Structures are given as structure tokens and as C-alpha cells.
Amino acid sequence: MAGSGMRQSIGAVEARRHLGELLERAYHLGEVFIVERAGRQMAALVPVEVYQQWQEQRQTFFARIDRVQRRTRRAPARELKADIAAAVKASRRSAD
User: Fold this and answer.
1) Chain segment 27-63, per-residue pLDDT in tens
2) Strand order in the sheet with 40-45
3) What are phi and psi of 54, to 5 degrees?
4) Does an H or E element contain 61, and which?
5) 69: number of CA atoms within 13 Å, CB side?
6) From 3.40.50, 3.40.1130, 3.40.1620, 1.10.10, which CATH number describes the 7-46 domain?
7) Where does residue 33 rank: exposed (0-12), middle (13-18), buried (19+ CB within 10 A)?
8) pLDDT over 70 (residue 2)
9) Is the pTM of this model over 0.85?
10) Residue 46, exposed/middle/buried by CB under 10 A (0-12, 13-18, 19+)?
């Protein structure tokens, strides 16, 4: 269900009037709503499963960063920069 719903923009006043319906559509249909005020995107209403996935992905990402930082704490800066440059270069080549 996480990516199955449509993404729609809705004004803040309209969202307030129909919040119950929007919640039902997000929960049951996986729809995503971008709430706007004065034409400016202010918030997103997403299914809770999507939000939970984002939270898990964020935690995993930062845990990986913490592990890398612990492992590389004593590595020379020059060596780290060279490794990072090589990884970026390899990543760009594989993307082409």
C-alpha cells in the first residue's frame, strides 16, 4: 500500500472541512495529500504505514552513519577523502 495511492494537493481550509474523509482515504486507499495555504505547500497527509517506513529508513540510515564514523574515527583525513572521491566516481559511472 505504501506507494499505491495518488498524490493530490488540497487547500488548508478544504482539508479542515474534510479531514475525516481525507484520513479514511489515506488509511484505506493509500492516498497522499499535500496541504497548501496561499499556494504554498505546508504539510503532507500520508498513510501511517508510509510514515513508519520513513522513520525506519531514517533510523537505519543514521545507524549506518554512526557505524562508519566509529570505524573511521582514527583514519587519516587524506585517506578518507580519497576513498570518498573514489566511491563518488564509481557511483557516477554506474549511474550513467
Assistant:
1) 999 999 999 999 999 999 999 999 999 999 999 989 9
2) 7-11, 32-37, 40-45
3) -60, -45
4) helix 48-72
5) 6
6) 3.40.1620
7) buried
8) no
9) no
10) buried
